[in-house]
Amino acid sequence: MANESRPCPCDIGDRFDYGGRGQEVQIEHIKAYVCKPPTNTDKAVIVIHDIFGWQLPNTRYMADMLTTNGYIAICPDFFVGQEAWKPSNDWASFDEWRKTRDAGKTDKELDVVLKYLREQCGAKKIGVIGFCWGGAAVQHLMLKNPQLKTGVSLYGVIRFFEDRSNLLHPTFFIFAEKDDHIPLEQVTLLEQKLKENCKVDYKVKIYPGQTHGFVHRKREDINPQDKPYIEEGRKDMINWLNKYL
Q1: Is the model's pLDDT at 2 over the cut of 70?
Q2: Is the pTM of this model over 0.70?
Q3: Which residue segment(s) compose the domain that 107 sits in?
């Protein structure tokens, strides 16, 4: 659970100096960042941003990494034009800010994006990944949306498993051992509920010594001790997508 001074587990971490290789498009009422591989593919991944929004260079870096692995990658603005959280904002106002940005209310936007991927990009097999706020959105979608093939939730606050844990699709959960906001007891309970109720493939993995956001918020060159785990987390994510897409 989040503490009072920092009511969200997302910290800005290392903000990448990265411009992105894709382009911004308008899809009905949503803006999105899209990157496509040089060769045609029918596989796509929807990337759900954290509280810092769809334009954060870190998230675009991850989308482009997916593209280098052969996927169409799209990062829509799931805040739908509302301002993303800024590191300079007062954390005391966070709960009020979050009320209009519910990770469990992403269905309408997701349907628009799915339609675009199928009709405009030729995608037939579509998965989803998400970080922190986006990781929680992935958890919601894996329990609800039948159109997706698979998902990867990266340090998503465990919100959607109190009542049911019967996932619709294979789901990979990435957690950090030293995440102050997602206690290991919560992860253990999640595993227990999945073991009891889940009928599809799933995996829960805890990365030693890591903190919240390590896969997309830490730079290998200034976090040398974390580099193996950053690379392992990214590789594990790609391998999971390759397996189910």
Answers
A1: no
A2: yes
A3: 23-244
